[in-house]
Write a structure and sequence with these properties.
about 350 residues, alpha/beta, Rossmann fold, 9 strands, globular, disordered C terminus
């Protein structure tokens, strides 16, 4: 699909289709491809397609009035919706497997046009880890990079604070109006005014544990590289790193004391091939030779990993086109490939 702005009615249809039960990103784009880019036509066909799969009741889309209320609430909050086909949608995110069909954004969307680097790490970060996050974020921002993170306590918050002046993107797991953690309300306001807030969650939605990995794929998807500052062995930051590798992006890590459990995960990443980072110059050196986000093509191959609870396999077969388009690989680099293979063996 060629990039183009949607009309208000088309955007409402996209949102309504994406909110239909059991329709995740993969199925959404399969339906859109099946019906020549028309979400309205896909909505009309849902009941019949569900009947063929024996799941008629599970695919009833929300009423149009409900979608109109959500859009009004989003706009009343000072935010807006961006569809993946629209020119303002970030190209780096559009290139990942199964990108969010729509994202809700609040703030300066022009930051999507700059190269982003994700800085993530422990919530209960050490004083040294916090200082490292602040230093990296400030120095990378001074070099023209945008810092992306998850608005969490610890490393995330430090990275956002330090990059407010140069550009920061906060990705939320809940609705655009659901600040989490609550103590970051002032930071949220500052980012909304000077940076950018992003989420794919419905307005008013309170995130649960299963929503954070979905958020993490957006953090890594927006970024050309992910830097892990501190991460325990079972850390959400390691999920972000794994997703970055699966998306063909660079992964780096700051080493920590082997006696500190907060550094065990990040140290393991280095053993598996992630670049060892001590300064912003190390990050920039690792970025040399990476493809620009401007060269990325929208994903046409992300039909392999559907989110839990999405459309049943029988219905996926029912809506699949007779011949799927060929896979178009995105630019990758040897370091990411090697680390990805290593990481897949050990996780």
């Amino acid at each position: 699909m060629q990039p183009r702005p949607l009309t208000g009615a088309e955007r409402a249809d996209w949102l309504r289709l994406s909110r239909a039960p059991n329709v995740g990103p993969i199925t959404f784009f399969q339906l859109l491809n099946r019906f020549k880019g028309s979400a309205a036509a896909a909505l009309k066909a849902l009941p019949d397609l569900a009947t063929k799969a024996g799941r008629r009741r599970s695919l009833i889309a929300p009423p149009a009035a409900e979608i109109e209320r959500e859009i009004a609430a989003i706009e009343g909050h000072g935010a807006r919706l961006l569809a993946s086909c629209e020119p303002d949608y970030p190209r780096a995110l559009a290139a990942i497997p199964a990108p969010p069909p729509l994202i809700c954004v609040k703030g300066d969307a022009s930051l999507f046009r700059k190269t982003a680097i994700a800085l993530v790490g422990a919530r209960n970060a050490s004083a040294v880890g916090r200082k490292m996050a602040r230093t990296l974020a400030a120095d990378l921002g001074a070099e023209g990079f945008v810092i992306a993170s998850g608005l969490a306590r610890g490393i995330d918050g430090e990275a956002h604070e330090a990059s407010l002046a140069t550009g920061t993107i906060a990705v939320m797991a809940g609705g655009i109006d659901k600040i989490y953690p609550p103590q970051h309300d002032r930071l949220y306001d500052a980012i909304a005014e000077r940076g950018l807030i992003v989420t794919e969650a419905p307005f008013g939605y309170t995130a649960t544990a299963r929503d954070f990995p979905k958020r993490n794929r957006i953090i890594s998807g927006l970024s050309m590289a992910t830097v892990v500052v501190e991460a325990a062995e079972r850390s959400g930051s390691l999920i972000t790193a794994r997703m970055a590798l699966e998306q063909g992006r660079e992964v780096m890590a700051v080493p920590g004391s082997p006696l500190d459990p907060r550094a065990q995960g990040s140290n393991r990443l280095i053993k598996q091939g992630a670049a060892l980072i001590e300064t912003a110059a190390d990050v920039i050196r690792q970025m040399e030779g990476l493809a620009s986000p401007d060269l990325f093509e929208p994903s046409r191959s992300g039909f392999t990993h559907e989110a839990p609870g999405d459309i049943p396999p029988a219905l996926i077969e029912a809506v699949r086109k007779p011949s799927a388009p060929p896979r178009r690989d995105r630019p990758r680099n040897r370091r990411a490939d090697a680390a990805c293979r290593s990481g897949n063996r050990r996780t």
